[in-house]
Write a structure and sequence with these properties.
This protein has about 180 residues and is of the alpha+beta class. The protein contains five helices and seven strands.
């Protein structure tokens, strides 16, 4: 994929769930997650639409030329005292990586996290997802020695946090 692309970000619609689950499943398989978990898709993945209807939660879909390119969301991190959200289910189709779609999704998620008055954004992943980790590093996330709160993902072994009170990172406006 060369040149500039035009990405539209919007809230998750019920009809988007199948495409997002396909993207999540494909990415998790790509990085060998099936060897670490009981099932590639978790119960909360199947309840994607309902999960992000909750208070202080939002999931965004990136659309390029009518195709769902990926998605990402934020929700309160359980057992973190209410000041921390978790960046969740940030996955992109391979064709849309490295062209700004992830940056746009992250910017929108961080924007809404600040609107929801979270002070910190937590993210976790597996060490094999080196491209994702480098992406988070570039956008100001700091690495942690262990997990925070209760994400429910015991298979993850890379934990990061971003202080939203200091955040002035990527803006979403240029992508809409």
């Amino acid at each position: 994929m060369n040149g500039q692309i035009r990405v539209t970000l919007r809230r998750l619609e019920h009809t988007d769930v199948g495409a997002i689950l396909e993207i999540i499943s494909d990415c998790r398989r790509e990085y060998g997650l099936e060897n670490r978990v009981q099932a590639i898709l978790e119960p909360s993945d199947y309840a994607l639409f309902e999960v992000y209807q909750r208070l202080r939660s939002a999931y965004f879909v990136a659309v390029v030329d009518g195709e769902i390119a990926g998605g990402a969301g934020v929700a309160p991190l359980a057992d973190s005292g209410g000041s921390m959200c978790e960046l969740q289910r940030m996955y992109l189709r391979r064709a849309y990586r490295g062209v700004g779609v992830g940056r746009a999704l992250l910017a929108r998620c961080l924007q809404v996290a600040q609107e929801f008055q979270f002070e910190y954004c937590y993210a976790e992943t597996i060490s094999e997802m080196t491209t994702a980790i480098a992406f988070y590093d570039r956008h100001g996330f700091r690495r942690l020695m262990g997990p925070v709160g209760r994400s429910g993902h015991n298979h993850n072994n890379c934990w990061m946090v971003l202080d939203l009170r200091e955040q002035s990172g990527p803006t979403v406006g240029e992508w809409q």
